[in-house]
Amino acid sequence: MKRTPFASWPCSIARTVDLLGDWWTPLVLREASYGSKRFGEFEANLKIGRNILTQRLNRLVEEGLLERVLYQERPERYEYLLTDSGRDFFPVLAAMAHWGDTWRSGNEGPPVVMRHQSCGHATHAEVVCAHCGEPLKLEDVTSELGPGYPQRLREKAEQMPRFAAQQ
Amino acid sequence: MKRTPFASWPCSIARTVDLLGDWWTPLVLREASYGSKRFGEFEANLKIGRNILTQRLNRLVEEGLLERVLYQERPERYEYLLTDSGRDFFPVLAAMAHWGDTWRSGNEGPPVVMRHQSCGHATHAEVVCAHCGEPLKLEDVTSELGPGYPQRLREKAEQMPRFAAQQ
Q1: What is the pLDDT of residues B127-160, one digit of tens each?
Q2: Between A and B, how many residue pairs show a Cβ–Cβ distance under 8 A?
Q3: Numbered ranges of CATH 1.10.10.10 in chain B
Q4: Which CATH topology does B6-87 take?
Q5: Cα gap B96→B93, rounded to integer Å
Q6: How many Cα atoms within 13 Å fall on the side-chain side of residue B158?
Q7: Which listed residue, of A3, A56, A142, B78, carries a Cα 20 to 30 Å from B142's Cα?
Q8: Contact list, A135 vs chain B (CB under 8 Å)
Q9: Could you say which of A7, A95, A146 has the minimum Cβ distance to residue B111?
């Protein structure tokens, strides 16, 4: 897999994209979120080549979203379980699903519907402001340099129109 | 670019992933969401090769997330503007940003902070149930076949554990 070191950019989107890497990685995560644990389950449900699957599972383990756990001793067999950070990726998948439901479903409607067991209703993901709870729309949001923006890049960044609003 | 036809899968995540395609595409979208419009702006801000950028911009135009608009006649110059579906991708980027803020920021904290101009507060994306407004967590969500799930695949899908809850 070609790697571009987005992980080092001062941008949480780029750092997340670095992990996604290619088409398959988010779908392996989707599969894990659907409850798949074993290599053969991922393989059968995704119809993915074994080499590619091995590579993507290893990457997700390296990155801490999946944990590789021994479930059988002879022969040794492992399963792949979501970690906290892997489970925490579900809202991203749910937001992606809603975009796809809206813009890629055609006239037939969504192929899959989520049910929120807590409230009992068929639902979909809505992305809201963590403070006021209103839907987060592009036109209402501005960006500011955060505490983790590298010092050596700050001066240059302060000139960028995207961060100018705070000056 | 190698293409795997995820667009035809009965899954809105796969259909969205098909669009993302590689590391660069979501970052070109991020850049457009930050206000970049012209080829040179994308190029300078992303430090991306011209061939790769051309390819990704064309793909986003084909897919309807960007619109290519003439802004100067001699010589002809175009800019790339977000369409409704492109703007509607912002919540997905915001959800990705929050995951990255949480799991990829280290001790320094987030590199960039969003401010919600509507309420005036520094904020982040929260993904909630569109019905009850509670945070959408993996363990509270089940999946059901939706109206757009292809008839010819329904019988097989109904056997899958992920869709079994509704039987």
Answers
A1: 999 999 999 999 999 999 999 999 999 998 998 8
A2: 327
A3: 6-87
A4: Arc Repressor Mutant, subunit A (1.10.10)
A5: 5
A6: 7
A7: A56
A8: 91
A9: A146
Q: Does residue B89 contact residue B83 with C-beta atoms inside 8 Å?
A: no
A131·B116 Cβ contact <8 A: yes
- Residue-level length of chain A: 167
At B39, list the tokens.
């080829």
For helices B90-103 and A12-20, give the axis angle rounded to 10 degrees: 90
Tokens 């599969």 locate to A31
What pTM, to 2 d.p., does this model score? 0.92
A54 pairs with which residues across the strands? none
Of A26, A91, A146, the CB nearest to B113: A146
Q: A57-92 burial by CB neighbour count: b if 16+ within 10 A, else e?
A: bebbbebebbeeeeeeeeeeebbbebbebbbbbbbb
CB burial of B31-63 (b: ≥16 within 10 Å; e: otherwise) equals: bbbbebbebebbbebbebeeebbebbbebbbeb
Residue of chain A nearest B45, judged by CA positions: A160
The residue type found at B31 is E
| Residue bearing tokens 């993904």 | B127
Q: Write down the number of H helices and E strands in chain B.
A: 8, 6
Q: Write the CATH number of the domain with boundaries A6-83.
A: 1.10.10.10
The rounded distance, in Å, linking the Cα atoms of B97 and B110 is 9
3-state helix, strand, coil in chain A (%, to 5): 45, 20, 30
Whether residue B109 contacts residue B97, with contact meaning beta carbons closer than 8 Å, is answered with no
Q: Dump pLDDT digits (tens) for A1-34.
A: 455 577 777 788 888 877 776 778 889 999 999 9
